[in-house]
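Can't paste images in this forum, so I'm doing it all in text. The chain is below; anyone willing to post the predicted structure tokens underneath?
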Amino acid sequence: MKHSISSPQSAKDRTKRDTFSIPFTDLKNSVLSQDYELSLVFIDDTYSRKLNTTYRGKNKPTNVLSFPLSKKSSDCTGSGEIFIDLVTAKSEARKFGMTFEKFVKYLFIHGLLHLKGMRHGATMEKAEKKLLHGTSNSSRH
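Text version of the structure:
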């Protein structure tokens, strides 16, 4: 299932809309399982800064935050939340050499892998590239 989202808009740019589709559900099922309960929340840079300050002690907005809400059991069930700051993502996409759509997909994948328990490093980067470019991730729990 694909979901459409709209990019953040400034007041002078309200008639211009970027919309695109990302297979959020398919990616979630591939990485975490169909039974994993996930909330995906799109936020702005103000709320991102508030969350980042509260939970990470960093007084600046961040592009993505993920929070496990319950422990995963051996059958891959669990729950968590991913917050993606669309304002920050829009401004950072070019720095990462990606379109806005591809960068939002990357941020979602990054959050999923953190919920799976991965930490930053070569293994996580390899998994991100595999998922971002559409190669199936067959390593399920």
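The first strand starts at residue 3 and ends at 6. Helices lie at 24-31, 45-56, 86-92, 100-115, 122-132.
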